[in-house]
């Protein structure tokens, strides 16, 4: 649908409008009493969220993100599905699945009684997805833009066989300087250190996570309450997860950042990914006709 038609049909006066953004991508721009936010139906991806009065965005989006159909966009909250990480079948399919590179359909947008804004987007299997993964599914994301940002992903198995997935909200948090932050909540958890190569024995997290080299870890049995303390931006980002048993913490550091065509050379300082995930041994099996969920709520607090 064209932008004018979208605005006429689904826009909400002074609250929600559709625009053309980077790469000509359709954007949903929200401004309510609590916050401003931008969501693109491409990948069902939240790109920006800033509470009213806050100086800085919750999320990082790379200035070199592709915004090209068929490619992933680096930043915001990419949805990784039906696999998280490299192609589990080793067939060279996209890292983190294909759903973040597909246009989703807007199924509802509404202003709630408390003034928050709710967006629902959906995507289902078609010939193109079945060529990549022979499963029948319907995926829905619900995004609540209020005093907090909440993202909930629901997978419905529409097929005749059990559906096995891994999945994640691959959130890129905007930070003042990654070298000065602390990630809290994973103390004492065991993690697989992917920066040191697969197959390493799990290591136990000793204290808060700090970034002084490449960090690429899968934490097992992750608790539901996490936080990022950012002394440079003077804030604490709270992350409350739902139905997620693993947490990936990723910062590419200098070399990997320079190798990534969709990051600027110094961007490793500007973000940390703390990802709400079910991966590694946490494969989810969904019986036919049933659904599985994963979600997270993000809150910005002053330090
Ligand atoms: O696909 P993106 O958004 O570039 O993210 C890639 C990174 O995603 C992280 O989740 C992985 O742990 C890293 O190994 C990977 O490099």
UniProtKB/TrEMBL annotation:
The active site is at 170, 275. The keyword Repeat does not apply. It comes from the Bacteria. InterPro entries: Aldose_1/G6P_1-epimerase, G6P_1-epimerase, Gal_mutarotase_sf_dom, GH-type_carb-bd. Belongs to the glucose-6-phosphate 1-epimerase family. One of its GO terms (molecular function) is glucose-6-phosphate 1-epimerase activity. CDD domains: D-hex-6-P-epi_like. Keywords: Isomerase. Signal peptide: none annotated. This is Putative glucose-6-phosphate 1-epimerase. PANTHER family: APOSPORY-ASSOCIATED PROTEIN C-RELATED, GLUCOSE-6-PHOSPHATE 1-EPIMERASE. Pfam families: Aldose_epim. It catalyses: alpha-D-glucose 6-phosphate = beta-D-glucose 6-phosphate. It is an enzyme of class 5 (isomerase). Its EC number is 5.1.3.15. GO terms for biological process: carbohydrate metabolic process.
């Amino acid at each position: 649908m064209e932008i004018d038609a979208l605005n006429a049909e689904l826009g909400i006066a002074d609250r929600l409008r559709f625009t053309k953004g980077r790469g000509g991508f359709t954007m949903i721009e929200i401004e309510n009493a609590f916050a401003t936010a931008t969501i693109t139906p491409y990948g069902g991806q939240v790109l920006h969220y800033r509470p009213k009065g806050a100086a800085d965005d919750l999320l990082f989006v790379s200035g070199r993100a592709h915004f090209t159909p068929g490619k992933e966009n680096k930043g915001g909250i990419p949805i990784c599905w039906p696999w998280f990480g490299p192609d589990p079948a080793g067939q060279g399919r996209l890292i983190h699945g294909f759903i973040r590179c597909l246009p989703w359909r807007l199924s509802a947008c509404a202003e709630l009684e408390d003034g928050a804004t709710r967006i629902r987007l959906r995507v289902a299997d078609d010939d193109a997805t079945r060529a990549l993964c022979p499963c029948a599914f319907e995926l829905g994301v619900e995004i609540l833009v209020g005093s907090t940002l909440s993202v909930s992903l629901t997978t419905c198995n529409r097929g005749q066989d059990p559906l096995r997935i891994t999945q994640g909200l691959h959130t890129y948090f905007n930070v003042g300087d990654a070298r000065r932050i602390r990630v809290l909540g994973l103390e004492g958890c065991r993690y697989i250190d992917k920066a040191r190569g697969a197959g390493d024995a799990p290591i136990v997290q000793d204290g808060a996570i700090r970034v002084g080299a490449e960090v690429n870890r899968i934490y097992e049995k992750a608790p539901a309450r996490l936080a990022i303390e950012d002394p440079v931006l003077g804030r604490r980002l709270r992350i409350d997860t739902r139905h997620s048993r693993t947490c990936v913490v990723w910062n590419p550091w200098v070399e990997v950042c320079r190798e990534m065509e969709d990051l600027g050379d110094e961007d490793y300082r500007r973000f940390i990914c703390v990802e709400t995930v079910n991966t590694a041994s946490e494969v989810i099996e969904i019986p036919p006709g049933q659904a599985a969920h994963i979600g997270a709520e993000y809150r910005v607090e002053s330090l």
